[in-house]
Amino acid sequence: MTRWLVTGAGGMLGRDLTGVLAARPGASVTAAPRAALDITDAAAVEAAVAGHDVVVNTAGWTDVDGAEADEAAAARANAGGPRLLAGACARHGAVLVHLSTDYVFPGDAGRPYPEDARCAPLNAYGRGKLAGERAVRELLPERGFVVRTAWLYGAHGRNFVATMLALAGRRETVDVVDDQVGQPTWTGALAGRLTELGEAALARRAPAGVYHGTASGQVSWYGLARAVFELSGLDPRRVRPTTSDRFPRPAPRPAYSVLGHAGWARAGMEPMPDWRAQLAAGLPAIRRAAARAAAGG
Question: How far is residue 192's CA from residue 184's CA, in Å, rounded to a whole number?
Answer without folding.
Answer: 16
